[in-house]
Design goal:
Blueprint: H1 2-15, H2 24-35, H3 40-56, H4 59-68, E1 77-78, E2 97-102, E3 105-110, H5 117-125, H6 130-134, E4 138-142, H7 151-159, E5 168-169, E6 171-174, E7 183-184, E8 195-200, H8 207-219, E9 224-229, E10 239-243, E11 249-257, E12 272-274, H9 284-291
Parallel strand pairs: 3-4, 4-8, 8-9, 9-12
Antiparallel strand pairs: 1-11, 2-3, 5-7, 6-11, 10-11
Helix pairs in contact: 2-3, 3-4
């Protein structure tokens, strides 16, 4: 009998019947419970709604119900459910980052904060000699239509602009994996302590806004000018999302702040606005010529 029982169990396991299969609904509920940036009572309400809807409705109807009830925001939801796209998610063609030195101005175009950006930036900076980088007086950062990207990437890029070692930055309220509530700079950045011009528009969003806000409000408030091109504000996304391992649901798991400024939903106001810019395209010498008359001592870094 013992031998028969052993053979039966072995056969069941071989067929996979004995394996404990994960419950995708329970996995989704657990992920929401662990990461959703909600107060306790609201979290409980949303979990009940999510559980009941998943048991009786389609994914689309579940997503709609969660959205109507405030359990999903515009950037959260069940992955794959069609809905209106939000601004700031169009990525223009071109390399992730490109650099160009125009006399004493270093122009940096960041297309998006993707996983390749830190290595690409390191390689691009390596094309210049230490003396050339020391002689840079102004850094123009082009973030036009940059939708943002990965938080960890943003940290590494900002290190290149750090004013000195040991400065706290990127303050957040986070339940996201691997996103602490603050960062501390590792050293003075190779592009630190310069003058900064940041080009933005209404599609500059998320990590690109966090980058801009760090320069403008935290590290270099008196030497950073935010220049709006065709728009007076950035998109206004100061929250972070995380998707589960199976990529079935994405939830808002954190928010970031800069002291004294509420960016979520309102964006970063430009210090200088070019509502009808010349057709410079990516001709940055042309762009600098247009910007120059506006950058007086009474404008730079001030409202």
């Amino acid at each position: 009998m013992r031998l028969f029982t052993t053979m039966l169990v072995a056969g069941v396991l071989a067929l996979g019947i004995g394996n404990v299969r994960a419950d995708p609904v329970q996995d989704m509920l657990q992920f929401y419970r662990q990461h959703a940036l909600k107060e306790k009572d609201e979290l409980s309400r949303c979990l009940v709604l999510l559980r009941s809807r998943l048991a009786t409705d389609s994914r689309t109807r579940t997503d709609e119900a969660m959205r109507r009830s405030g359990c999903f925001d515009d950037f959260s939801g069940l992955v794959g459910v069609p809905r209106l796209t939000q601004g700031g998610d169009t990525i223009p063609d071109g390399p992730t980052v490109s650099l160009k030195l125009i006399e004493t101005t270093l122009v940096m175009r960041i297309r998006e904060f993707d996983a390749d950006l830190p290595d690409n930036l390191k390689t691009a900076l390596g094309e210049f000699t230490p003396a050339q980088l020391r002689n840079v007086q102004t850094v123009l950062v082009d973030l036009l239509s940059d939708p943002g990207g990965r938080i960890r990437v943003g940290r590494k890029v900002l290190e290149a602009f750090a004013p000195q070692q040991g400065v706290a930055y990127m303050e957040a309220v986070s339940r996201c994996d691997d996103v602490p509530n603050s960062q501390v700079t590792e050293a003075t950045g190779v592009l630190g302590n310069k003058r900064y011009l940041v080009l933005v528009n209404g599609a500059t969003a998320s990590m690109a806004e966090w980058f801009t806000a760090t320069l403008r409000y935290v590290w270099y408030p008196s030497s950073t000018t935010v220049i709006g091109v065709g728009s007076s504000r950035t998109f206004g996304k100061a929250i972070m999302q995380l998707a589960d391992a199976d990529n079935t649901v994405k939830v808002t798991c954190g928010s970031w702040t800069v002291p004294g400024h509420d960016i979520q939903g309102s964006g970063i106001p430009a210090d200088v606005v070019l509502m009808h810019p010349r057709e410079c395209g990516r001709d940055y010498r042309c762009a600098l010529e247009e910007i120059a008359p506006l950058l007086t001592s009474t404008v730079v870094g001030k409202k």
